[in-house]
Every structure is written in structure tokens, then in C-alpha cells.
Amino acid sequence: MKTSLLTLIIALVISFTCSGQTEKGTKMIGGSGYGSFQEGFDVTLPPNFGYFVTDNLAAGSGLSLVYSKRNNYRNIATGLQPFVRYYFGQDAPTRVFAQANGNILYGGDKSTYGESEQKNSYRHHSLGARLGLAHFITEQVGLEVKLHYNYNFPGSNLTSSAFGFSFGFQIHLPNSASM
Which end of the chain, C or N, has fewer beta carbons within 10 A? Predict the structure, then answer.
């Protein structure tokens, strides 16, 4: 019991003393997920890849993967989510970041009512802003929580803009020259 407790304390101390890798040349791979089981099933998985063009500033893109199923309705969509992210502060295990992103999504849905079936295709374009907190549990792995706002352009499938939050992670792969 004492050994387990001591191991846990050491792991926590190490995790709170690690700093994140946000130097120029670092690659960032990760993502977050959204899901819901209200009146059906919804899941959105946006894996992403970024590159630090300068210290603390990353640019990249995510890949939107969307699936929804409710009673007589099914939706499948995919798209790109380009982003620019800036980390504030230096050499701290917990860092605040701000992100601007877009979303270009194309999909299709199908509704079935008795013998009748209706299919639609759509496009969705939005711009968003995110404010997040990343806690680096190691030098290269950060857990994140984000508050976000998305503005959906007129003519998009979604007509209202939305606030939300999400959880995710990022793996920071340092430039081989800095190792």
C-alpha cells in the first residue's frame, strides 16, 4: 500500500513539473471527441495535425468525421478544420491557448418514413474561436479542455451559431534537432 501511494505521489510531482513542447519545428497530433445518446446516437471525431511555425504558434488542420443516427434519420459527413493556435506562457505544465479555426464540411443524410425514403446532401461552412487549457502530463502529452464558439455561415446546413466545450489531448513530437 505504501509503495503504491509513493509511486502515485512521484507520478503526480513529475506530471506537474513537466513543460510542454511548443518550440518551432515541433509537430502536434491529437484530437477530441464529442458524443451524445439523446434520442439516438451522435459522434464527431476530429483528429488533427499541426506544426509549430514559430515558438508557441501552431498551424494545421483537423479532419471532421461525423455520424448521427436517430429513429428514421441517418447523417454521415466529413470535412476539414484548418486552425491556428497560440500558447501563452512558457515552461509551465499548464498552459492557456487561443485558437481560430474554420470548418468545411460535406455530408449527406437519409430519412425513412414507412416506404418513403428521402436523401439530401449538404455543405456546412463555419468559423470558430476556442479558448483552452492544456495540462501537460508529460513533456509531450497534453490533456485539454476547450470552450468554443462557432459562427455558421448563411446557406450552411446549420443555421444557428453555437457555444460549447470539449475535452481532448495532443501529442507534441519535438523537432529531431532539439532532442
Answer: N
pTM above 0.90, yes or no: no
- The residues that bridge with 119 in the sheet, in sequence order, are 110
- Mind listing the pLDDT tens digit of every residue in the chain (179 residues)? 555 544 444 444 444 344 458 899 999 999 887 766 767 777 888 899 999 999 999 999 999 888 888 888 888 889 999 999 999 988 789 999 999 999 898 888 888 887 888 888 888 888 999 999 999 999 899 999 999 898 888 776 655 677 888 889 999 998 865 54
CA-to-CA separations, 30 to 100, 103, 115, in angstroms, rounded: 17, 17, 43
**Which candidate, 160, 129, 172, places its Cα nearest to that of 24?**
172
Distance CA 177, CA 179 (A): 6
CA distance 109 to 73: 7
